[in-house]
Fold these 2 entries.
Entry 1:
Amino acid sequence: MWILFRSFSNASSKIIATFFMVLVLMMLGVLFAPGVFNSVNDFANYIANLNWIRNPSLGEQGVAVFRVFINEASIFGILMTLIARAVVELLWWGTAQLWRTVNPPEPEATLQAKQGDSYYN
């Protein structure tokens, strides 16, 4: 049960961290790398203006709904979320690696000695 709770906790933490990372990356992009920020936006515009995206083979109502939901802003948001999630995963992995470096696992002999000295044995 604790493993399930811990996995939900990690997932929730990563989702919240991704939300804030999107905001931070957008602010940092505008401040320090406007060219890269604009190129990501241009790439989203390019994808949104492709002919097979703008004119899908749907009915008239489907095309209207598709154009409302698939636009430059939604594609840009998806791209920024994916980039932010990659950054969050790298930070999470790096933190775990640092934790394992600072707190190495105990040798087997020490673990067996601790188990043998138990109050209940």
Note: The CA atoms of residues 81 and 92 lie 16 Å apart.
Entry 2:
Amino acid sequence: MSYKTLLVHLDDTPRCATRVRIAAALAALHGSHLVGLAPTGLVNLPAEVGWAVLGDLQEELRRSATQLADGFAHQAGSSGLVSFEASVLEDEPLPAVVMRARCSDLVVLGQTDPDADRPLVARDFPQQVLLQAGRPVLLVPRRGDFETPGQRVLLAWSPGRETARAVSDALPFLQRARQVHLVLIDTSRAPDGAPRHQLGWVRAWLRGHGVATEAEVIPSQTDPGLVLLAEAAKRRADLLVMGGYGHSRAAEFVFGGTTRTVLSQMDLPVLMSH
């Protein structure tokens, strides 16, 4: 298994260049074709404003997106990539990224920055892409400098469909990693149970794919997301792999949840699947 096509979302935020650099490094490592997608966005004004004005505004959006695509092509070319594509799509960012993501193997997005002066996408843009695209999403934190992620991986296991999907989707990373640490945050009070038994099965399955792992069960009654981030920092992990939204988003919003915590407080790249 390999990532044949990587997709990176382009925008005019200061972190875009960092996101492209990481995506380009991953494309070079995995021998992937890299697509840089710059959605134009759509002018959303009443028709009474006048078609000429609307047309001029849409043309300005198109020019801005084209500049982003040109900047991506220059950065990708300067990085030595031989297979890349700069794409401008006249649509809102979410449907544009979701449509192209479904024809890709991995999507590289930026973490939402709540302090952005004029966000170009909705604050839940990464969450919506994760939920709708049907592809794994690699999220780059809004702060910090990162080398190519995937050398030291923290793999978060829980007994759910989303986690199983994430582990499978992350195999190209796991098979290249120098260290993979498999961890189960056990919030139950039972001394034993199916989730703990699954760790052995997961390790055996991963060995069949050439991935050696260490495994650990961490009993905790606190937010598993905080425990995972602390564990990642302790082990100097450069990538966290986990399932996203094993519970509904509504439940996570009301009661809190691992995905919500990690998305808001992450300080390392995170690969999520839903």
Note: The two ends are 19 Å apart (CA to CA).
